[in-house]
Amino acid sequence: MYTVIKHRRNSFILGDYIRLKYFSSSITDNGDSTSVNLGSKKTIKNFDDIPGPKSYPVIGTLYKYFPFIGDYNAETLDKNAWLNWRRYGGLVRESPGVKLLHVYDPDNIEAVFRQDDRHPARRSHLAMQHYRLSKPQVYNTGGLLSTNGPEWWRLRSTFQKNFTSPQSVKGHVEQTDQLMKEFIQFIKCKKNLHKEDFLPYLNRLNLEVIGMVAFNERFNSFMPDEQNSKSRTSKLIAAAFGSNSGIMKLDKGVLWKFFETPLYRNLAKSQEYLEKISMDILLRKIHFFEQETAENDKSLLGSFLQQPNLNLKDIIGMMVDILMAAIDTTAYSTSFLLYHIARNPECQKKLFEEIVTILPKKDCQLTAEMLAKAVYARSCVKESLRLNPVSVGVGRVAQKDMILQGYLIPKGTIIVTQNMVACRLPQYVREPLRFKPERWLRNTEEYENLHPFLSLPFGFGPRSCIARRLAEQNICITLIRLVREYEMKWVGEELDVRTHLINKPDKPIALCLKSRIL
Q1: What residues bind heme, as annotated (predicted)?
Q2: Which residues are annotated as part of the binding site for heme?
Q3: Considering just the CA atoms, what is the radius of gyration of the chain in Å?
């Protein structure tokens, strides 16, 4: 007896969601291939039968990442995924020290996420977790990003109350818009802006926004004395990048577990600076936090301090996670969005026409109600995230045996959903490489009913990005203010990505900004 789960969207049966406990007695060993016979219907093949690179004893498929002899690159995971898909198809096996499965088809991606237990697990930020657990005087856990199980859920369920509530997020619109106005004045003072990389300016903007929204703290990122490399804001931005850039390489390595490698030392140094700044902010907040201020404080930190099941070490960990995640991630996503808008004048024209109806004058205050009317702007954000998501896909650790497309996926397998590649395949999206925001506009001729598990830029389910709504809102406000103020043209090379855990533009963000008269 066995159970088959039918696919939610389609009438056919998706192979193969069969719980192993119902047919474990039917497993037979046929030499190199273990199979499960389900009468005359299916033969379940084992994990090693999944197509993928040749695996060798001890090193598995790690040789594919070796310099000179390998054709994979840890900084171009999207290219690796393309190679795998073209060579092996929609399910690809690797064994770089662990069992690793790449999943491309959105039906199979949905199947993976429908298997999630109450506490979805992931294998990530291992070196950061090691670093934090070595400092019990500062941290209780490895943080929200690396922790699994009930302890992860304790943190997530407590912190997410103000992060994910739509009403709470809307409460930050006007504050964020005011910072955007300051940012506009900041870049107006820059000469020859079109010859500079716009990304560092976006880093400063997002640091300033997250400082106010999360901590009620002004970092003064736009001030002249903060522009040098030794300033607090410059060192914060560098520490966030230093934390993020090495995580994926450290996750693939093992030497740091035995001694401090240069990459691990850089991670530790970056984490130390982020925790120092977080401690300074937290101590000031505690010592000078008057009751009247606490009641009026809308910051996330203010809400954290009022949670009875959090202590200061939990809060420090979350503050460091926020600084790590908010600066680079939002700046990179905004960079790709501006790239697409600047290269597509027709889309930019439609966007400006919508923005003018919302903000007839440049100095109008943007409110949550006005932002809700920016339908085309939100479609532009969605379309940019389809083409250039935050990361190549979403990671999970299989918490039980499952059958996927006729193959047995053992418990403990690392599964990576390859959404970025899938979003660029014509079988799932019409004109997939074209930037076309109209495909997201319901009740229009150009609307596409895309598979709900195709584009997942912020993940899925309880393990999705805790700040998704806040990030999308900040990106949208940035887009609206810049397009309201400037006509943008792209004057750089075609952009691609470098994968430092999150997708970073591989070339400078080269924009020519021409002030609008209207």
Answers
A1: 465
A2: 465
A3: 24
